Amino acid sequence: MANNLKQIKKVDIDSLAFGGSGVGRIDGKVCFVPYSCPGDQLSVEIVSEKQSYQDGRISEISVPSPHRIQPECPLFGNCGGCAWQHIPYALQLRAKQKILTDALWRGAKVEESVVQPIVPSTERYGYRSRVQLKVHGTADGLKIGFFRPNSHYVEDIYDGCPLAVKPINKALASLRDVFSGYDEVGSITEIHLDCAENGVVAIIEYNGKKQEQLCRFVIQNIKRLTPLTALYLSLPKKREYLRLYGNEYLFYSLTFAGFDDNICRLSYLPGSFSQVNRSQNQALLDTVVTLMNPDTGMRLLDLYCGNGNLSLPLCRLIESVTGVEASTSSIAAARYNCKDNAIENATYISADAVGFVKKLIQSGEKYDVVMLDPPRGGAADCVPGICSLDPIKILYISCDPNTLARDCRLFMSNGYALAKSVPLDMFPQTWHLESVTLLVKKGF
Fold it and tell me: Average pLDDT, whole number, for the chain?
């Protein structure tokens, strides 16, 4: 007969890990415990046992940490949208600083002194300009929110999300009101909301068979959806977006590097990537400028460039930009942004980064700086090619300290030294963090 008895153990939490869990040790073995706080003394149920670590779930907080605070959201702990509302912001920042420092030491033997102080977010709540929400609709009601941790149960954020900007929560309330009365709501699986300077766009993911009926329903209810300036249907089966009304492009602003009173307007297509924390996006650009130290003779290669978010605002300080991105919609936006901002020294190309770099090597092209902002999985396949281009500086923007450390180790074994790494908190109340790392060719 299977043993179904719960395994309960005592653990003291001493730190926080990338991924959000608190970390303690049980008989010398690491135990990860979600929603715990450094200083907690806990009884935990062991839910997963691995060779080198175990996962626990809080059974009882025997002695709460003196650092614990009251979460602002009543759904915290059930909603999977964030993990650290019970932790003071100063402690969140220290944890993220240590996560990056530890990852770079563990993965690339980078000294702690190389990691600069973290750049805090100016807003701790109400900063998210984009959210992706799950939908569960039945005859008994409509739920819009995030999945509960480790489940597919939709936790309904009936009063909105405190991390989201106010226009998103207003738009969400109107969508909830309208679609609560729609008989095909069960075929809507997700709602994406994106807020920019020129409005709020909703993308409704629909997998039903009554597309025309849904389109008519939306058009009939436009006046009730007034917080929205545009609405799109996402049709996964057809792999396409259908614009029902409103904005084709969204835009936000950054200042041109070196020109504090001169605005660079950056547009992007709904559904395309953009940084969710607008004020920290400016801080990200400012950090890039400081580390790059641009000059008028500099040629920049921007890999995984998106809509030109970081390279377009640099154009007035350097000789030229070549941007490369696999997403055709992002490249279309980048080219549009060149025209919109009267930029003539930037070229944006839709291509796979690894393949494009190989072509550059064959052609003998040279760049002073290579900047890359790869997805979470990093850019290991691209590192040898970048090194073959022989840039003096490499600027690596990362959202994953572990893949950053792995790739930096590769750069360092190919003639580069890690000069500085700057963490930025783009995502307060969560474990996510961004960083900008400068690598310099040895001898320069």
Answer: 94
| Stretch 317-324: mean pLDDT | 97
63: domain CATH number is: 2.40.50.140
Q: Is the residue at 204 inside a domain?
A: yes
Find the catalytic residue in 79, 161, 195, 399. 399
On the CB side of 143, CA atoms within 13 Å amount to: 14
pLDDT at position 2 over 60: no
Active site residue 338: no
Q: Residue 1 pLDDT > 50, yes or no? A: no
Paired strand residues for 435: 398, 423
Q: Is residue 91 part of a domain?
A: no
Say if 2 falls within a structural domain. Answer: no
Q: 299 near 369, Cβ under 8 Å?
A: yes
User: Which residues are registered as beta bridge partners of 440?
Assistant: 393, 417
Tens-place pLDDT, residues 330-354: 999 999 999 999 999 999 999 999 9
**Residue 287 maps to which CATH number?**
3.40.50.150
Residue % of the chain over a pLDDT of 70: 98
Q: What is the CATH number of the domain that holds 224?
A: 2.40.50.1070
425 in the same domain as 305: yes
Q: Which helix (H) or strand (E) holds 346?
A: strand 346-350
Q: Please list, residue by residue across 196-222, b when 16 or more beta carbons sit within 10 angstroms of its beta carbon and e when fewer do.
A: bebbbbbbbbbeeeeeeebbebbeebe
pLDDT value of position 163: 98
Strand order in the sheet with 230-235: 154-156, 141-147, 130-138, 188-196, 199-206, 230-235, 240-246
